[in-house]
Write a structure and sequence with these properties.
The protein is of the alpha+beta class. The chain has helices at residues 45-57, 65-89, 188-193, 196-204, 209-222; strands spanning 3-12, 22-27, 32-38, 97-104, 109-114, 118-123, 126-129, 135-136, 157-158, 171-175, 182-186, 229-238. The protein is built from 5 helices and 12 strands. The protein is globular, with a radius of gyration of 17 Å. It starts with a strand and ends with a strand.
């Protein structure tokens, strides 16, 4: 038995921000899904997230999964350098973005991330956060790169993002590849508004990813929706 997948994604400005600095990518043809969250409080956060999605969206998949991962890392390192150069030209301190991504392989799935955008896995009703936020514990009124982690979403300040340091370091985690598994990628605008229990309940719905995404966004937009909100859901299926 082999596993296939279906997926859906959506991004919205929310109720408070004047522009959407998030960007998403759904590439079922190459087994790649991405959520990028441009750093608020700085200029051109939308430019940073859009550039990440543009470059990753242009990748082709040749060779094995590790060749593809190398291409992903090379593309993000190039974006990292370009964003740092653009910040110098535009005379601003940082132009940056977080990124969380998922890569499919017939044997397993790989998730990579920089920053506090997240990837969750749900299987047999249990929700597990695969990523670990790149934040450093500080009082919630301290900011770093313009991102403050608010009460209710954990305390700390963002310590890593694309466009910040000269060398970009992605973290990676490996997950299984079994029918019935769900993966949720989201910007922190989602987990600011919704608890893990609500995220888990949405993934347990007996509907496809499109309907699950719509349910998540309906819940988030009923709340304060203080930040841009973005999510991608990938469901693994038997074929």
């Amino acid at each position: 038995m082999t596993t296939q997948y279906c997926s859906a994604g959506r991004t919205e400005t929310g109720k408070v921000r004047r522009r959407n600095e998030d960007a998403i990518l759904v590439r079922e043809d190459v087994g790649l899904w991405v959520v990028a969250d441009g750093l608020g409080g700085h200029s051109d956060g939308d430019f940073a997230s859009a550039l990440i999605v543009e470059r990753l969206g242009a990748l082709t998949r040749e060779g094995d999964v590790f060749d593809f991962i190398a291409a992903v890392e090379d593309s993000l390192q190039q974006v990292n350098t370009e964003l740092r150069d653009a910040a110098v030209v535009r005379q601003t301190d940082v132009i940056g973005s977080t990124v969380a991504l998922l890569v499919h392989d017939p044997q397993f799935l790989l998730c990579g991330w920089v920053g506090d955008s997240r990837v969750y896995m749900q299987e047999n009703g249990a929700l597990t956060q695969l990523t670990r936020d790149h934040v450093h514990g500080q009082p919630v009124d301290v900011t770093h790169f313009g991102r403050r982690t608010p009460a209710g979403a954990g305390t700390g300040v963002l310590t890593r993002a694309v466009g910040v340091d000269e060398t970009l370091h992605l973290d990676w985690a490996v997950a299984g590849n079994r029918p019935g598994m769900h993966f949720l990628l989201c910007s922190d605008g989602i987990n600011k508004e919704l608890s893990d229990e609500e995220l888990s309940a949405a993934c347990r719905e007996q509907h496809g990813p499109h309907q699950q995404i719509e349910h998540l966004f309906a819940l988030a937009l009923e709340r304060r929706a203080r930040d841009n909100i973005s999510a991608v859901i990938v469901r693994l299926e038997a074929s």
